[in-house]
Amino acid sequence: MRTRILGFVALGAVVAMTVVGLFVVPADLNQGDAQRIMYPHVASAWVGYLSFGVTALAGIGWLWRRDRRFDAVALAAAEIGVMFTAFAIWGGMMWGRPIWGVFWQWEDPRLVTTALLLALYVGYLLFRRLTDDPERRATRAAIVGIVAAIDIPIVHFSVEWWRGLHQTATIGSPDRVLNPSAPMQFVATLLGTLAAFTLAWAYLMIRRYQLARAEAQREESRRVERVMSARTAEPAR
Amino acid sequence: MTDAAFVISAYAVIIGGLALYSAVLWRRLSAARRDDEAR
Amino acid sequence: MNALRLELRVAVAVARKDALAELRGRHATVSTLFFAAIVLLLFGFALGPDAARLAAAAPGFLWLAVVFAGILAVNRLHLLETDDDAMEQLALYPVSRRAIYAGKALGGFAVMLLIGIVVLGAVGILFAVDIASAWLPLSTAVVLGALGVAAVGTFYAGLTVRLRAREVMLPLLMLPVLAPLLLGAVKATTAAIAGDPFGELGAWLQLMAAFDLVMLVAGAATYGFLLED
Q: Does pTM surpass 0.95?
């Protein structure tokens, strides 16, 4: 089964990059060991944003084609995206404490934007729970997902602007890892972790999608049963 | 808390969280598959 | 051209319907204004009594009060539709969904504008902020802010109006989306009051305008799906 192979490859990649990030790659001269957190932190953020984009696109797919499979993709992407986004924020906080001295920094546009992303995602998932009818739920969720996705670039842009007015050039900037002129080992480790997390995302997406489809079908057959039993019960009157 | 503790904390939650989610997902999927076969 | 005029008339008709219903005795606008005033008072209590600190934070208070009051206002405006399944009847009319959205958003804008003006005045008084000298940029900010809250609020209120846990879902969905508008509004207000020392006022107002445009278009485009069910 191809998915199973993907799973093992992803597992191997994640384990390998964890080892590399923790032990193999050298520590940063300025940030020390704390900089190691950047690898899974950035990778998680990347996957979180990717997943969110998938949620929005799947929503568009549902509105366009009315194929329930799109909604299953949207649900899977939202749930997994929440997880990775939460990881990203946690990583950001764990990095921030040793580097900035505080767990949170309002001047970091990525952290603030990611926090809002999390809020939008969680709202989406909670919102889904409030509708029982599958088709209505899919439609409403799609709308919420699309509008939220439209909001994210605006948020990012505005927070960048916000930060721009308070120039605090510090060594303690997460940008160091993303800078293409950074040492090769850092870049390689980052890209490797990115790839590993993306593989893990893909695997989890497939499994979560399968689960969503299985549950949708079970829900559907239960409805049919209820309708059937209601019909057969009537003649008794 | 030393730097190392923060690093460990970050990796533990992220990697551990991935493992936990995968495990729960796996279990739910197996249960759903069993139900399907039973029907 | 005729089709567009028809849409405009529909929008105005929807807005008028809401306005009349409001005026006929729901008193929602009055209580919403009082709510905003109470919020301002509480801000004063929580962060006072140092006048300088309050004056510096006043733009934030202003817009937070407007946003919170806005949640209540759009919620009430849409509650009108739950009576007698008015929403379903509205959806049955053979008019474009955009026009209905525009109408509801227009009504919302009128209410938000009123709230914005009143809160602006209250903030000037309560926190000793000089509003008069910057009245033009401040009015612009209020108009743009009111429009943004109305656009977003109308959309989400329509979406949540028949859901359980509506009271918490509406702010939960609306507030994160409003974050950039809030940021722009507070920054523009701060700059305007200070006389725009860094020349950033224009940029923030543009951000607000861009936000409003994007959200109005998104809301109009998707409102049809909302009414469908």
A: no
